[in-house]
Specification:
The protein is an all-alpha fold. The protein contains twelve helices and no strands. It starts with 5 loop residues before the first helix and ends with a helix.
């Protein structure tokens, strides 16, 4: 049996301190969300009379039901397009040994370096000219293009570490390249697909600036924009904001916990290439 040494004690103390640092903001979030309206107690102290009224008020006053539906529509549409297009784009890049594949991959990687703020105004004008302002389709198009470089990077790295013998065997049996990709390669990419889904879901779900720009002036609001109505210049209804944040983050947590076993494996495989 291994002996308990002072090094082990120090390591445990460091891990406990790190856990406290991560858990403390969650404690503050729940504490303020349960605080009765009109009270001015310290956020560090748990409310003496916790209440769930803030959750009902946030749901009704911010119309979170509609906001969740629009957030789901935009997130599911964007992530579905990203998974389909990025995997199809990464497959020939990873499998081809010609010079063009390296050039195309370099172009995608260039998209990781350029900040989207450079094209923010031209993209807004383009969406306006297409008549898509106020339409969730504009956000789906925007997020698909914005997150494509990262998704292609992860898929390409994973495919380069994947044995090409699987699809070659399928092609010998008569499958075409597309059929071999859909039937053989795509199921093998489930770990990195889970990573792509989680990364993009969190980004799209939590984004505030883009929905504020493209959907402002309409009743089609996402959760971050809907909660922004509780924060004014002189008054901020923090209990309602924090209660709304808990409601808004719940669907993302469900997706994360359902797919968390794929995240580390997908990242490790994607970065290996």
């Amino acid at each position: 049996m291994s002996r308990y040494t002072w090094r082990t004690g120090v390591l445990e103390a460091v891990m406990i301190a790190a856990a406290v640092v991560f858990v403390f903001p969650l404690y503050i979030l729940v504490s303020i969300a349960l605080e009765p309206s009109g009270t001015t107690s310290s956020p560090v102290s748990f409310p003496t009379s916790p209440t769930l009224v803030n959750f009902a008020d946030a749901w009704e006053r911010a119309d979170l039901g509609s906001a969740i539906l629009y957030s789901l529509l935009i997130t599911v549409g964007s992530v579905t397009l990203l998974v389909g297009l990025a995997s199809l784009a990464a497959y020939p890049i990873a499998r081809s040994t010609r010079l063009w594949s390296k050039g195309v991959f370099a172009l995608f990687m260039l998209g990781l370096l350029l900040p989207f703020q450079l094209a923010m105004i031209p993209l807004y004008w383009t969406m306006r000219d297409l008549g898509l302002l106020g339409n969730p389709v504009a956000l789906i198009i925007f997020y698909t293009g914005l997150q494509m470089p990262m998704s292609v990077f992860l898929y390409t790295g994973f495919l380069r570490s994947l044995d090409p013998g699987y699809e070659q065997a399928a092609q010998i049996d008569g499958c075409g390249p597309l059929r071999a990709f859909v039937s053989v390669v795509l199921p093998l990419m489930r770990p990195v697909t889970g990573t792509v889904i989680i990364i993009n879901t969190i980004f799209v779900w939590n984004d505030f600036l883009t929905p504020l720009m493209y959907l402002s002036g309409t009743d089609r609001q996402t959760i971050p924009v809907a909660l922004f109505g509780f924060v004014g210049q002189y008054v901020a209804q923090w209990p309602l904001v924090f209660a709304g944040l808990i409601i808004g983050v719940a669907p993302v947590l469900v997706v994360y916990f359902a797919m968390q076993k794929h995240v580390i494996q997908g990242f490790a495989s994607g970065l290996k290439g």
